[in-house]
Amino acid sequence: SPKQERHDEL
Amino acid sequence: MNIFRFAGDMTHLISILVLLLKIYATKSCSGISLKTQELYALVFLTRYLDLFTGFISIYNTVMKLIFIASSLAIVWCMRVHPIVRRSYDKDLDTFRHYFLVAASFILALLLYEKFAFKEIFWAFSIYLEAIAILPQLVLLQRSGNVDNLTGHYVFFLGAYRALYILNWIYRYFTDIHFSRWIACVSGLVQTALYADFFYYYYISWRNNAKLKLPA
Questions:
Q1: Which of B135, B158, B187, B211 falls between 20 and 30 A from B141, CA-CA?
Q2: What PROSITE patterns does this protein's entry cite (chain B) (predicted)?
């Protein structure tokens, strides 16, 4: 599965 | 990280520093909505739940800590600090902000990226941040004259999300995986709410006059 789209923004 | 997002984060940080300066320099929080400050503290606390579980970068962690600590410190100042709290416009800051919290939470239960605890709270924090400025904008209209630092505070606060919109456009064209519709649409709504403030801020800057919002 694609890398869990982490919230990289503040 | 791109220049738009970095500029956005720095503008956000500047807005917080301007507010802290206003409170400490004037020992007063007149013209500042405690309700908006409480909503921002809630936004940061619900958005940064992964502060200790996920690590993205030193910058990311440090900025999250700064945002959480500063928003809580401002709420503490306005509620507890013996001198500052006296200047709080309690009878002008009457926006029923609980409705904003409830509406954001209900929307987050309906519209989210993934039905998971942290994702629901992340979406909640995004929706809440978009409308959290409403009590502050209402207070500005009611309190008529706006002091310079308060005006600059609201301006930088509105400008930071406008820079984030440029960041999302940039990432849309450079990041193939990029799809942040929730943040994008909320960011557009959030920035649109500042439209009339931006206009009167520009007028006061052009005429070198005091910032005045029509009642």
A1: B187
A2: ER_LUMEN_RECEPTOR_1
- Helices B148-174 and B134-142 sit at what angle, rounded to 10 degrees? 150
Euclidean distance between CA atoms B93 and B139, whole angstroms:
6
The residue among A1, A3, A10 with the most chain B CBs within 10 A of its CB, best to mutate, is A10
Residue B62 domain-assigned (yes or no): yes
| Residues of A in Cβ contact (< 8 Å) with B12 | 10
Number of structural domains chain B divides into: 1
Contacts of residue A1 in chain B, CB cutoff 8 Å? none
- In chain A, which residue's Cα lies nearest the Cα of B182? A7
Q: What is the ipTM of this complex?
A: 0.89
